[in-house]
């Protein structure tokens, strides 16, 4: 069992889907702690309901990003965390943090990276006229929304979509994609080669994975 720490800043729906998956039999991870940089994040209540330890480490109590990240590293290390999942954690991590957990930090982003990194990306997708968008789970490097891609899901963008409608459609798939990416990652099914993560499964297993992540008229 790999020990997991989750960082959040808000409602924590992705965190919840990870925690619920970790309760399933055969899921190779154990949630040790959820850390929020925002005291009022509603995700904290969700984690408590699922009996997972929570900590608030307010970034405003630190003078620098590094100082804040060091406080988080201390908690994560104390809990023996081996994999860090960012689940709507809306702050950039310092190089210090990224180095401490090199190639062990996962993030979910509501767009098909490398398209649309940053904020308000569902709105940007609608406004840009793309026909498809989706979500990406990737390893975190020192750049924003960047690093080897682990899994992606694709959903259509409809002509009458606004950013809220698209965000809802994508979020449903985030909740499937993130747990599956974490499971495969914990099972050491990815081989990192530079900026690529190769998925070491045979073609039929790959097809199964892709099918699970396909939009199916939902
Ligand atoms: C999710 O859509 C996640 O992909 C996004 O924030 C939302 C958090 O929702 N993350 C980013 O944009 C990171 N760049 P949640 O708190 O309900 O999981």
Please sum up the structure shown:
The protein has about 220 residues and is α/β, with parallel strands linked by helices. It has two domains: about 1-100, Formyl transferase, N-terminal domain (Rossmann fold), CATH 3.40.50.170; about 110-218, Rossmann fold (3-Layer(aba) Sandwich), CATH 3.40.50.
If you had to describe this structure to a student in words, what would you say it looks like?
The protein is 36% helix and 23% strand. With 218 residues, the protein is an alpha/beta fold. The strands form two sheets. Strands 3-2-1-4-5-6-7 form a seven-stranded mixed β-sheet, sandwiched between helices. It has a two-stranded antiparallel ribbon with strand order 8-9. Helix 1 (13-22) runs parallel beside helix 6 and helix 5 (121-128) crosses helix 6 (163-186). The longest helix is centred in the C-terminal third of the chain and has 24 residues, at 163-186. 38% of the residues are buried. The model has no long low-confidence stretch (mean pLDDT 97). It binds glycinamide ribonucleotide. Residues 8, 10-14, 43, 87-88, 108-110, 145, 171, 174 line the site of glycinamide ribonucleotide.
